[in-house]
Structure formats: C-alpha cells, structure tokens
Amino acid sequence: xxxxxxxxxxxxxxxxxxxxxxxxxxxxxxxxxxxxxxxxxxxxxxxxxxxxxxxxxxxxxxxxxxxxxxxxxxxxxxxxxxxxxxxxxxxxxxxxxxxxxxxxxxxxxxxxxxxxxxxxxxxxxxxxxxxxxxxxxxxxxxxxxxxxxxxxxxxxxxxxxxxxxxxxxxxxxxxxxxxxxxxxxxxxxxxxxxxxxxxxxxxxxxxxxxxxxxxxxxxxx
Amino acid sequence: xxxxxxxxxxxxxxxxxxxxxxxxxxxxxxxxxxxxxxxxxxxxxxxxxxxxxxxxxxxxxxxxxxxxxxxxxxxxxxxxxxxxxxxxxxxxxxxxxxxxxxxxxxxxxxxxxxxxxxxxxxxxxxxxxxxxxxxxxxxxxxxxxxxxxxxxxxxxxxxxxxxxxxxxxxxxxxxxxxxxxxxxxxxxxxxxxxxxxxxxxxxxxxxxxxxxxxxxxxxxx
DNA sequence: CCAAAAGTGTTGTGGCTACACCCATGG
DNA sequence: CCATGGGTGTAGCCACAACACTTTTGG
Lengths: 221, 221
Hints:
The structure is a homodimer of 221-residue chains. Chain A is an alpha+beta fold and 221 residues long. Helices cover 24% and strands 23% of the residues of chain A.
C-alpha cells in the first residue's frame, strides 16, 4: 500500500517522500503508505494512510497504478505492494512531517526499495492522462488564469506548453469554461487575465483517441 | 489472482470461464485463477495458474488490470484479487476442462462474485489499446490475411472495421508488413490475398496521442 | 466473360500547431 | 504612449474515414 502523491510545485512536478530512520534502507527516501485494514477497500485505505501519516487530506484524484510483486523487491520477506497515484491541487500546502519533502520527480534522491520506479510510473500515467482526459482539474486550483494553468501543465509534462493552444484545446473539448471574472494585472502591467475553471471535477475521457472508430452511420456494438 | 483470458473466436470476443461446483455462488461462472506462491511475482503466478488449471500455455500477452478489494466482494472473509488481462491468438484452441467455456464478453452468463465486471474491464482495456498500440499481434496468428485481421479487430471492438483502412493505418504506423507470399483464393473466387505479419510481437505504443505535444523544435524535458 | 474478393488512388475533414496580430492594462 | 502580458484569427499540416476504382482470381 504505497501512494505516489504528486503536485505541481515551483515549476516542477514533485512527489512526496519521507526519509527512513531505520534499516533497511536507512536514510533513503520512501513513498508514504501502510497496511490495508480489514474493513477497507484499497482506495479508502490509501486515503486514510496519507491523511494520518503526511497530513494529505485533500487528494483531488486517486487511482491505482499497479501491483509491485517481484519476490526480491523487499529484503527478507515477501511484500506485495499496491501502488497509487494521488494528486494535490497546486494551491494546497499540506503540513508535512519533518522527515518529509517534496522532491522533483525528474531528479529523485536515493529511493528505498523500488519506490523510485513507482514514482516514475505514476508520473508517466499522469502525463498520458493529461492528453486525453480532463485530469488537469486535479492539479489546478478551483479557479485560475490560463498562465497559471500553463505553468502547471508545463511542470507536469516536463516541457513548455503554449498558453494559446492549451486554452484552445481544453475549451474546444468543453473541459474549461470562463467564470466571467478577471483578476487585476501584475506589477509590470499587461492586460488583466480572465479567470477560468474546469467544467467538471470528476475524471472523464475527453479524447477517446479511437483510431479505427466505429462507422459514422450504422450500428454500434 | 484472477485471469480474464480473451480470444477472438467465431466472430466474437470471448472470455474463458469455468462453472463453479460448490458454494458460494454454485453454478455461476468464474474467472480462472489461484493463490500467489512465495517465490513468484504476480505475472509468473497467473501464467502458472492458467497453464495448470485451464491448459492455457500460450498467452501472447499478459498485463495487470487492477486490484479488486471491496470488503464485501467475497462473502465471509476478506479477499483481495489482482486481476489480469491475458490474450490468446485466434488460431490456438487450448484443451480446456469440461467445466470450462468460452463465453462472449458481450453476453456474459451469471458470473460469480465481481468476475463479470472484471471481464468487462479487461475488454475495455483491450479495446483502448487496439487504437494506440500494436496489441493486435496478441490476438492474431503469426501470419494472416487482411480479411482475417479485419474479422479479429471487428470481434474485439464490437463493430465492423474496414479492411481498407485497417491495413492502411497499421501499415502507416509500421506495425504491419507483408510476407511477400499469398494464399490461394477461396471457393467463390476472388483475388488471392497476401499474407501479412506484425513487425513486432512485443507491445509498443504506436500512437502516443499526445495532444499538447512538445514543441517541434526546441528543448525537451 | 462475369462474379467475387483483394487491394490502391483520391478526396474531404477535423483537430491540432504555429505564428501573426489585436487588446487592455500599469507606469 | 509604450512596454508587458492576455487573448484571437488564421494558415497549414497530418492522420484518418469514406468511397470510387483497379487487380486478380474461380467458374
């Protein structure tokens, strides 16, 4: 039961890690997690673990990544871990314990066990879903300017995206809508930006990317 | 540990199910599977289970679907299942036990526990991957005509795909290649079809569907 | 020579990137 | 009035679906 909690922070995509104080893997950085209790399903459990151990209460999105089960992944005894991707909006700053840090996923420290690999898998899953779902809602505040959103997408994807096309793609898909309000311009002037929000804060697939799609007229399934 | 083994058979996408002979869920249809042994990882284990129990030795592709963990999914005690998608090429016909059948996924019988839901999840995963990967190799024989491939894709997707465009999309992506050989025409005449094969029999993503893709010139990550 | 099936040529379209251009503000 | 950042208009591209057309066989 491990959670790769990701957030767009300071221009990078970061993952929450804590530094181990005992053997094995003393001083290495690990993903937070814990054991499944008898009356929970796995998603409930990982949410509880993250709230209790690292004060992350407001995961805007949680999904399963995979089960990691190589017999030698944990020294001594057999440990099978179910790994999760969790996302935190960029305007939230949980009060994490002293041994815990947000590390850039692109520049991980020495990680315990296979936790580095898990973090990278979580990042890749997020990146893929940014393209074909509305999952950006889980990284962004409730309302934001297109510039802010651009910074978030750039951090998560690892390259600069154009604000112009970001707005256009998400609007065309009906993912983004304007609030009608604007916020005042920055200290160096410029036109005051409009505030936007995501129309839907549940995950939905917005680009079914079905090549070989069903015939346009005629029977479905 | 459960395997949803799918195959394109007789024009349908089918899943291998066996009929339970005891309580609970007497006479309902269940996915094959078993328990994880101490020295295996989960993929090795599901391959072993399927070979031992239903004589499926030649899974051309195996991947994890998800962990199913609702506390009440199994009556009595808590059972957490890791579910897999397994694929069998259409020219193989395993000698399955007497209590086992290939059921169309679109028309499932009464299933045990949540196994029906798992089979549908597996089908949806396969359908998505047919669009953006070369996963067709796992459903097709080593060599085949475009017509045969069309039948396989149509069965898996649940709607008719055009042979013309199927060949074109897969060729453009470099997924398909001709063997140079042809096979003789059918009883009703017609031009003898060419034999094709997949260029690669390992899973690869052929359409990265990255909207918001990185700038064409300039810095990557 | 005709029906049937395989395979190619070609047109139109939608969604995207790139970039030029216009808009609204602070100093 | 000009620098700065926000936002729109538009051209071009590319992968695809659709369908007309050509090719090659059996009878």
